[in-house]
Amino acid sequence: MLQLVLVHPQIPPNTGNIARTCAATGTQLHLIAPLGFEITDRYLKRAGLDYWPYVNLKIHPSVEDFIEFRLQQPGRSVGFSVRGTSNHFEFKFQADDWLLFGSETNGLPAQMLEHCDATVYIPMSEPGVRSLNLSVSAAVGLFEARRQLGAY
What we know:
This protein is an alpha/beta fold.
């Protein structure tokens, strides 16, 4: 089963939107602290609407704790980064992939990139645009993986 990981997310509505997407798709969501908000933040809750009971959420206290946990799980770690080496449309996703996304301002930290089995990027036409919104990137990445795997 695909897993979605947010490393140090900072903006509550982005995380709430991603949680809602994970609820709709049955995808487990992993948050790696420190978070830029409290898990009880009203904007986080509002963005997730009343879908929070459907979110399979695991919070990891640090990158080190997540890496230790992750190494005990099957699957590949696929990092999404503007400096990724493969176009995410051409990358062949597998059912047990872990999709990793960094914070809104810093992307994936080097420590996480070192543990990725692959890195991918989402192509953009305008070179002046540095990146997409985190919740958009997570949805685009998750739904492309699901499309490839036939999970409509």
